[in-house]
Amino acid sequence: MSNLLPFEEALTAIEKAATVRVASETLPLSKALGRILAENIVAPINVPPQANSAMDGYAIAYQDWQDDKAFVVSQRIAAGQAPQPLQAGTCARIFTGAILPAGADTIIMQENAQVEAEQVRFLSTPQQGDNVRPSGQDMQQGQTVALSGQQLSAMKIGLLASLGITQVSVFQPLRVGILTTGDELIPAGSSLQTGQIYNSNGPMLEALVAEAGHMVTCSLHAADTPAATEQALQQLTTECDVILSSGGVSVGEEDHVKHVLEKLGTLHLWKIAIKPGKPLVHASLDGVPFLGLPGNPSSTLVTFHWFARLLLSVCAGAQATRPKAYTVKAGFRRSKAIQRDEFLRVTIQQGKAYPHAQQSSGALLAACESQGYLHIKARESVEENQEYDFYPFNSF
Ligand SMILES: Nc1nc2c(c(=O)[nH]1)N[C@H]1C(S)=C(S)[C@@H](COP(=O)(O)OP(=O)(O)OC[C@H]3O[C@@H](n4cnc5c(N)ncnc54)[C@H](O)[C@@H]3O)O[C@H]1N2
Ligand code: MOO
């Protein structure tokens, strides 16, 4: 066990070795959803540009306020109109989103107003500044509002649109290559012969890469021979920015991926102290980063979530963020401690974590029936009601 790299050290090593692998391009904002910003965004204007009313009502100068005073309505200001300065001692009829006239500093909502012919009397005493949205309340000119490396979500698209921005500099999509290995694997759609199983890691990895916002440009399957593995890896190296593979990284004679990597490229690390996912390989081939994920489907899932996602983010120009942990109490106890950090597939019931009964790294339904990972550190037993880090699947 001593040759297994600790979990945190492996994460740090993979993150540190990663570099941005994509160029930037300028896109219309409307085409940039999900892309990674390649520039900081500095607000070119205040939002809102001018102080405006948060309510339908009446604008007054607070200094004119007197209890029971009848205010003459001297103008009407709808949203989008440019108002005249407020005549001293009067009020202006105003609507939500309309600009405050110069001299006004307080809005009284119409529910608190009593209209009498051309005059208005107010039923409650206002505070100065009531219902005014000052210029720059949301964003101030010169403020940095989004950073290079952040992904453009729908809300960020809205934010940039409110600044009048029409084009953004973003990174081009990361081209990811996928290789599955194993003579026992056939694609769904054919009927199984003895010894065969369906290739599930290929479709799962393609979906995981797409879910993370990257582009699978080439997905290959190689037979369990050094020549087939070598040929597939050479093709992926020329066509992709990053390569992920599944299977063939353990110690058996049929596991060729690691040997081919040693021949064609540079091996950075092999075998990590995690369960599942131990035989993970990190390498590079002609400068193309490579991550060889173990073939057991739950090992593929866990190592994608922790390692591949991080590597792909950095290569795509994104900020490297770790998933958010929530502290939860274990609803069970386990006296046996192991030498690897373990990611148990668990569900949360009444605020406590319970492990799925099936924790085999070959079982994928168990992960689908769970809500996330409970992280048990190497050499720790599990005590009931003790707190552990829980990572919901949707935080990856
Ligand atoms: N003597 C030892 N044997 C194994 C060790 C070990 O330390 N000593 N480690 C075990 C662990 S832990 C894991 S994890 C696996 C990883 O092995 P590989 O990454 O080399 O993967 P394969 O042997 O190719 O496959 C493992 C398992 O997964 C199935 N598989 C592979 N690819 C797919 C796919 N695309 N879709 C669905 N299922 C797939 C494959 O049929 C095997 O059952 O090694 C252990 N052995
Ligand atoms: O590391 Mo393996 O993934 O324990 O099954």
UniProtKB/TrEMBL annotation:
The organism sits in which domain of life?
Bacteria
Q: Report the cofactors.
A: Mg(2+)
What molecular function does GO assign, one term?
A: metal ion binding
Primary enzyme class: transferase
Q: Which UniProt keywords apply?
A: Magnesium, Metal-binding, Molybdenum, Molybdenum cofactor biosynthesis, Transferase
**Pfam families xref list:** MoCF_biosynth, MoeA_C, MoeA_N
Q: Which reaction does it catalyse?
A: adenylyl-molybdopterin + molybdate = Mo-molybdopterin + AMP + H(+)
- GO terms under cellular component: cytosol
List, in alphabetical order, the GO biological process terms annotated in this UniProt record. Mo-molybdopterin cofactor biosynthetic process
Q: Which NCBIfam families match?
A: Glp_gephyrin, molyb_syn
* Family, per entry: Belongs to the MoeA family.
- Protein purpose: Catalyzes the insertion of molybdate into adenylated molybdopterin with the concomitant release of AMP.
Please identify the protein, giving its name as recorded: Molybdopterin molybdenumtransferase
The top of its lineage is: Bacteria, Pseudomonadati, Pseudomonadota, Gammaproteobacteria, Oceanospirillales
